[in-house]
Specification:
Blueprint lengths: L12 H14 L4 H20 L11 H14 L2 H8 L1
Helix pairs in contact: 1-2, 3-4
């Protein structure tokens, strides 16, 4: 019988962002686009951590995302907040 190893699921937003960055590079997106996407991911993760919210993707709810966007709208322009949301 062949044994199989089950790897733990990667569900932390910071770890997934690294994988996402690799995917964006492989998709040949511009360095500026990749930088903007990664900054948004870092900002979201930092927001979650600072407020004691979950960083495991399956535990992040609509309310967490809405709280992040609300915070952005209070601190940066609406267009930048929209970009971070996307």
């Amino acid at each position: 019988m062949q044994s199989t190893t089950t790897l733990p699921a990667v569900t932390e937003i910071g770890t997934l962002a690294i994988s996402w960055q690799r995917h964006l590079r492989a998709a040949n997106l511009s360095p500026k686009t990749i930088s903007n996407y990664m900054e948004a991911a870092r900002q979201f993760e930092r927001f979650l951590v600072e407020r004691g919210m979950p960083t495991t993707v399956g535990s992040i709810t609509r309310e967490h995302v809405e709280s992040f966007i609300e915070e952005l709208l209070d601190t940066i322009s609406a267009s930048t907040a929209a970009t971070r949301y996307r």
